[in-house]
Design brief:
Layout (H helix, E strand, L loop, with lengths): L1 H30 L17 E4 L21 E10 L5 E11 L3 H4 E5 L5 E2 L4 E10 L10 E10 L1
Antiparallel strand pairs: 1-2, 2-6, 3-5, 3-7, 4-6
C-alpha cells in the first residue's frame, strides 16, 4: 500500500511538473515575437497657400494698407501666391469682419484670380481691387479681413 501511495504521489507530482512546464512554455511562447519591416512608398497630399509681397516668396504678406481713399476711388494691391503643397488648388476670395459693418455696403473687394487653379509648388501674381462707392458716408476709417482659400482639386 505504501508503494501505491508513493506511486500516486509521484504521479500527482509528475502531473504538477508537466502542468508547470506547459504553463512556462505557453508563457514563453506568448512573449516571443518577430518583426518584419517593409518599405512604404507614397505621396502625402498637402494643401497650403502662402501669400508674399515678392515673387521669390521671402516677404510674407500679412497686412494690406490701402492708404487714404476717397469716395469713388478704386485701389489695387498686387502680391504673390504660392501653392506650398503638392496638390492643385482652386482659388477663391471672400471678406469678413468689416469694421464698421456699414463699410461693407459701400466698399467691395475683388481680384483677378477667382476660380483659377494653382498647381503644387507654383507661384502666381494676384491683384486685389478695392472699390469705394461714390456715395459712401459716415466711414472715416475701416478694416476687414481678406480670406483667400485654396480648395483641393
Amino acid at each position: 500500500m505504501a508503494a501505491q501511495v508513493s506511486i500516486g504521489v509521484f504521479t500527482v507530482a509528475l502531473l504538477g511538473v508537466a502542468v508547470a512546464v506547459g504553463a512556462s512554455a505557453l508563457t514563453a511562447w506568448g512573449l516571443m515575437s518577430t518583426t518584419r519591416t517593409t518599405q512604404n512608398l507614397g505621396t502625402i497630399k498637402t494643401v497650403n497657400l502662402g501669400a508674399y509681397w515678392n515673387s521669390a516668396c521671402t516677404n510674407v504678406t500679412s497686412t494690406v494698407n490701402w492708404g487714404t481713399l476717397s469716395p469713388g476711388n478704386v485701389a489695387n494691391v498686387s502680391f504673390y501666391l504660392r501653392n506650398e503643397g503638392n496638390t492643385p488648388m482652386r482659388l477663391s476670395l471672400t471678406t469678413q469682419a468689416w469694421s464698421p459693418a456699414i463699410a461693407s455696403s459701400h466698399m467691395s473687394l475683388s481680384w483677378n484670380r477667382e476660380g483659377q487653379t494653382l498647381a503644387g509648388g507654383n507661384v502666381i501674381q494676384a491683384t486685389l481691387t478695392l472699390n469705394v462707392s461714390p456715395s459712401i458716408s459716415g466711414v472715416t476709417s475701416f478694416s476687414f479681413d481678406t480670406v483667400i482659400t485654396g480648395s483641393e482639386q
